[in-house]
Amino acid sequence: MAYPYVSDREVRLLSTYFGDPKQRHIETYVKRGGYSALEKALGMGPDDVVEIVKSSGLRGRGGAGFPTGVKWSFMPKEKKKAHYLLCNADESEPGTFKDRELMRWDPHQLIEGCLIGAHAIRAQHVYIYCRGEFFEANQVLARAVEDAYAKGYIGENILDSGHDIEVTVHQGAGAYICGEETGMMNSLEGRRGEPRIKPPFPAAVGAFGKPSTINNVETLCAIPHIVKNGGEWYRQWGTEKSPGTKLFCVSGHVIKPGNYELPLGFPLIELIEDVCGGMKDGNALKAVIPGGSSVPLINAEEARACKLDYEGCVDVGTMLGCASVIVMDETTDIVKQVRRMVDFYAHESCGLCTPCREGTTWTAQILRRIENGKGTEDDLDTLMEMTQNMVGTTICVLSDSVAAPVQSSIEKFRDEYLALIRRGERVGAA
Ligand SMILES: Cc1cc2nc3c(=O)[nH]c(=O)nc-3n(C[C@H](O)[C@H](O)[C@H](O)COP(=O)(O)O)c2cc1C
Ligand code: SF4
């Protein structure tokens, strides 16, 4: 397949070789141009690599969209100190399934991105924190790391450059909160996966007490392409503020769900109707969660106006997050869906902060009561007030993630809540 694969809709830069098992072999990867970006980067000073990434405008793909080059520039410049690059491969956000595919199909693309990133931030060690349940991805990655060591791309004096970088694949132990960057650092150190209070920020005091940078798998996979071809080249796709391509994980009521790599700014409705083949069974679109379960739901009208980039999603009252597009048709029971998401957060809350520990559990209980026809209209006010108190009051934003679907669903689909509440009253009165 030509690189990058460009059709009138898709731009497969990171996903060119999805489905091609040959790409896992280091010989094939090198034959197709792999590790040439690493060679180029090692011939440059770390700060020059940071400048290329800054010029590309690449924004972190782990959810927050923070500019990657800027993040890298926060790291201290003395090489003598221990520094770490941590690759966040924990991918547990409901609706997200892109990082596992990047690791399964193209492990060397990630390893090359990690090595370039490590060079740019003067790190001597990369930890890839891979979700424990990803058995295949863990095996494929471990094999690829071994092969890269054997060929001299990892280890001492890489490619005779005088630079030493080690890479460790670390299997996570199965908790959503270990995807939060400071929870991940604790887990890596062998502690409970609980987030840390910031400051200090990881670039000052990170893993093992040393300066660390945390980047998502997809972010790091974009790096070799940017270093090889330049920042301006990467900017040919996407928008001014959200440049490049993005993997969209589409699930729910569409004919062809799956991973699609598209230029940022792609219209959501065209993703649903053209790229994914339209709505299943000819049903009407009811709601979309465009960025994984932590972002507000939008209704069909808002979905029609939504451009899939960081700013375009904010314009319609939601967020791009990690671009996990959950599509719901007219048959969807919104209250049930929201309750299921809240159940997930209640189960995954680490329990450190009272608003999150108590709030997630109470929110789930009230939602279940409404779902079972035992709710009251006052419950809706309670839910709005309680979730408001869960925003901005905790150590990490897991708590805020509950407020987004609950509040947006009550605002946009209040009638569904009221129908359940009133049905309950009628049943009770009979
Ligand atoms: C509860 C929670 C879970 C998270 N899970 C993940 C995850 O699984 N993968 C990920 O890359 N980022 C996750 N993040 C975001 C990370 O904390 C961090 O911002 C990200 O890895 C930074 O990488 P980036 O700059 O490349 O986006 C999570 C954040 C929170 C609050
Ligand atoms: S917000 Fe929730 S998950 Fe995050 S630290 Fe507090 S209790 Fe733990």
Task: Give the topology.
Elements lengths: L4 E2 L4 E2 L13 H6 L4 H7 L3 H11 L11 H6 L10 E6 L9 H7 L1 H15 L3 E6 L4 H16 L15 E6 L9 H8 L23 E5 H13 L1 H4 L10 E8 L5 E6 L2 E2 H8 L9 E5 L8 E2 H6 L1 E2 L1 H6 L8 E6 L4 H15 L5 H18 L5 H12 L9 H15 L1 H16 L1
Parallel strand pairs: 3-4, 3-6, 4-5, 7-13
Antiparallel strand pairs: 1-2, 7-8, 9-12, 10-11, 10-13
The structure holds flavin mononucleotide (FMN) and iron/sulfur cluster.
Iron/sulfur cluster binds next to helix 15 and helix 17.
Helical content band: 40-55%
* Radius of gyration, whole Å: 22 Å
Strand elements, count:
13
CATH topology of the largest domain, anyone? Rossmann fold
Q: Key features?
A:
430 residues; 18 helices; globular; Rossmann fold; binds flavin mononucleotide; single chain; 5-stranded mixed beta sheet; alpha/beta; 4-stranded parallel beta sheet; 3 domains; de novo design (two linked rop proteins); Ubiquitin-like (UB roll); binds iron/sulfur cluster
Write up what this structure looks like.
The chain is α/β, with parallel strands linked by helices. It folds into three domains: 230 residues, NADH-ubiquinone oxidoreductase 51kDa subunit (Rossmann fold); 85 residues, Ubiquitin-like (UB roll) (Roll), CATH 3.10.20.600; 96 residues, de novo design (two linked rop proteins) (Up-down Bundle). The protein has 18 helices and 13 strands. The strands form four sheets. A five-stranded mixed beta sheet has the order 8-7-13-10-11. Strands 5-4-3-6 form a four-stranded parallel beta sheet, sandwiched between helices. Strands 1-2 form a two-stranded antiparallel sheet. Strand 4, helix 7 and strand 5 form a beta-alpha-beta unit. Helix 5 crosses helix 6 and helix 16 runs antiparallel to helix 17. The longest helix is centred in the C-terminal third of the chain and has 18 residues. The radius of gyration is 22 Å and the shape is globular. The termini are far apart. The C terminus is likely disordered. The site of flavin mononucleotide (FMN) has 23 residues, from strand 6.
